[in-house]
């Protein structure tokens, strides 16, 4: 079916090429590359089996935090017990660090450092909860709570909960009250400088700030992770990917007060499949380019997602003055439900108390594909391509986009953006071709040449 789709889609592109006579060849390359890039599904091959410590012939070594003095009453400080258990689990091959079910373990900010012996499993079945008072937070670890680093081939699982107890942190955020100083807050779960990591079936909730950061990692698969925090909790991104490659997120349900997923500098080959987002600020690439920095993000795919009542849907955000690029991004099979900015590229992103000046330098955005995106928008401007005058966005491809507004009309906003549309594109994105009218093949134009049938039967 997919192959058929590819063939017919390319067929249409070639037809469109014939019609417009001036199609940017790059588009075909981008689509071809993406269509052939797919991940194997987690459920098909179980690489790391459920730890066999429950079975008689189990070869796993069980390291239970309770055996190291953890109390699990939600009140006693279990930090030391966790640290001791970590030392043993990390240094023992095939061990399972167990956080038992049905209890709440109060744990302070802690670094869990590798490298560890092979085949470590971190089995979080119970709840790990953070102390809730920002004033007592360890000043030496202001930005982390549970921080794992230098791991290789580690599996995190167990169906348990990581709870940041963030409400006092949110209240003391400068986003909530302008008289508060703008300090950062801890990330609930960090996995840093690691490779071959799997995280499955965990809940991360009410983080102090970001919920789950994947930083400087290669080869990470996250599946069945649930993130939840109130829609008005500040800066509580769901899953944040930075300086990481070959990351797969699948079957994740994220409701939070900031981006459901954010992908920033030096990240590439990120694939997201079956993502549910809302409340939240959508799936974002960026922000990039803050304080004149260089930001590069390439090869990102989001396939199958539902956005419900989010502030944005598919967003790329960059600051004026940055450099670098965002290239080769594909968003497809996405449903929007009452989303404020379903499709948005914002090269004028400015999340600072002072006004950001327009600058000539910008992060260059090109080869961005939106395919089969439908649903409802809250704002009139269902699609916004707000690009820099000096570094325009290019090769934006829209294919079968249909966004409607209840009781109202919809439109596309463009500034300095070029690209093309195929199949139904609603609202019309003619403004993408303002520099070269020939590039857009609208339904009407296709119909004029008698190709309407191709559009409707094959797309
Ligand atoms: C956590 O660490 C802080 C600072 O070191 C300390 O004051 C506090 O008692 C520790 N335990 C808990 C449960 O907050
Ligand atoms: C991780 O472990 C695998 C298999 O044990 C090994 O081949 C690989 O080199 C390791 N990677 C790193 C970064 O240590
Ligand atoms: C904002 O913070 C200031 C200083 O901490 C405090 O006096 C004020 O009551 C806070 N305002 C709100 C609305 O919470
Ligand atoms: C972006 O990533 C590159 C490559 O890792 C690094 O050199 C650069 O400092 C990063 N920029 C920022 C703003 O972190
Ligand atoms: C960024 O570059 C612009 C133009 O060169 C300069 O005016 C501005 O001060 C720089 N900003 C920072 C944070 O370095
Ligand atoms: C388009 O996306 C929707 C999800 O929003 C999906 O149900 C549908 O099957 C997709 N259509 C095609 C042709 O892939
Ligand atoms: C969309 O959101 C608006 C404002 O938040 C709300 O009034 C409206 O009922 C919502 N529409 C739907 C269809 O959910
Ligand atoms: C920056 O440039 C954009 C696009 O030309 C324009 O819409 C906007 O008003 C400018 N902003 C400022 C602060 O000059
Ligand atoms: C932005 O990237 C595109 C595609 O690689 C390239 O054609 C264009 O020249 C770049 N723009 C600038 C201002 O560098």
Automatic annotation (TrEMBL):
MF terms (GO), sorted A to Z: polygalacturonase activity
Record's keyword terms, sorted: Cell wall, Cell wall biogenesis/degradation, Glycosidase, Hydrolase, Repeat, Secreted, Signal
Residues making up the signal peptide according to the UniProt record: 1-21
Keyword field contains Repeat: yes
Domain of life: Eukaryota
EC number(s) stated in the UniProt entry for this protein: 3.2.1.15
InterPro entries recorded: Glyco_hydro_28 (IPR000743), Pectin_lyas_fold (IPR012334), Pectin_lyase_fold/virulence (IPR011050)
List of catalytic residues: 281
Entry keyword Cell wall biogenesis/degradation: yes
Subcellular location: Secreted, Cell wall
GO process terms (BP): carbohydrate metabolic process; cell wall organization
Pfam (any one): Glyco_hydro_28
Gene3D superfamilies xrefs: Single-stranded right-handed beta-helix, Pectin lyase-like
Reaction equations catalysed: (1,4-alpha-D-galacturonosyl)n+m + H2O = (1,4-alpha-D-galacturonosyl)n + (1,4-alpha-D-galacturonosyl)m
Family (UniProt): Belongs to the glycosyl hydrolase 28 family.
Name of protein: endo-polygalacturonase
């Amino acid at each position: 079916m997919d192959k058929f789709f590819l063939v017919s889609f390319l067929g249409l592109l070639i037809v469109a090429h014939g019609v417009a006579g001036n199609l940017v060849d790059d588009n075909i390359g981008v689509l071809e590359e993406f269509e052939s890039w797919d991940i194997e599904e987690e459920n098909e091959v179980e690489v790391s089996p459920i730890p066999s410590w429950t079975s008689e012939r189990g070869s796993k070594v069980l390291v239970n935090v309770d055996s190291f003095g953890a109390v699990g009453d939600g009140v006693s400080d279990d930090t030391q017990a966790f640290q001791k258990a970590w030392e043993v689990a990390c240094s023992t091959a095939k061990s399972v660090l167990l956080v038992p079910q049905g209890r709440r373990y109060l744990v302070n900010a802690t670094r869990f450092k590798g490298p560890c012996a092979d085949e470590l499993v971190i089995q979080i079945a119970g709840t790990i909860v953070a102390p809730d008072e920002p004033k007592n937070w360890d000043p030496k670890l202001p930005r982390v709570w549970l921080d794992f680093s230098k791991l290789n081939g580690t599996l995190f699982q167990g169906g348990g909960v990581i709870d940041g107890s963030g409400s006092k942190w949110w209240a003391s955020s400068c986003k909530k009250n302008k008289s508060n100083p703008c300090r950062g807050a801890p990330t609930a779960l960090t996995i840093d400088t690691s490779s071959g990591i799997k995280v499955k079936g965990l809940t991360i909730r009410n983080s102090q700030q970001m919920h789950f950061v994947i930083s400087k990692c290669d080869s990470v698969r996250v599946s069945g992770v649930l993130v939840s925090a109130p829609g008005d909790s500040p800066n509580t991104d769901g899953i944040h990917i930075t300086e990481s490659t070959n990351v797969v997120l699948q079957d994740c349900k994220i409701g939070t007060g900031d981006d459901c997923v954010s992908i920033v500098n030096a990240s590439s080959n990120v694939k997201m499949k079956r993502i549910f987002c809302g409340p939240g600020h959508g799936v974002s690439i960026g922000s990039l380019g803050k304080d004149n920095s260089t930001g590069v993000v390439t090869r990102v795919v989001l396939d199958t997602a539902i956005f419900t009542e989010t502030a944005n849907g598919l967003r790329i955000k960059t600051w004026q003055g940055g450099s670098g690029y965002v290239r080769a991004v594909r968003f497809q099979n996405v449903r929007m439900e009452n989303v404020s900015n379903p499709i948005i590229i914002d090269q004028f992103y400015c999340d600072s108390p002072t006004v950001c000046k327009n600058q000539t330098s910008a992060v260059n955005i090109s080869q961005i594909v939106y395919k089969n995106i439908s649903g409802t928008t809250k704002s009139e401007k269902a699609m916004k391509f707000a690009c820099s005058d000096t570094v325009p966005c290019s090769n934006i491809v829209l294919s079968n986009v249909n966004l409607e507004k209840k009781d109202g009309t919809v439109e596309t906003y463009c500034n300095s953006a070029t690209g093309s549309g195929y199949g139904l594109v609603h609202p019309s994105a003619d403004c993408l071709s303002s520099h070269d009218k020939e590039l857009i093949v609208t339904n009407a134009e296709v119909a004029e040449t008698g190709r309407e049938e191709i559009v409707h039967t094959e797309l």
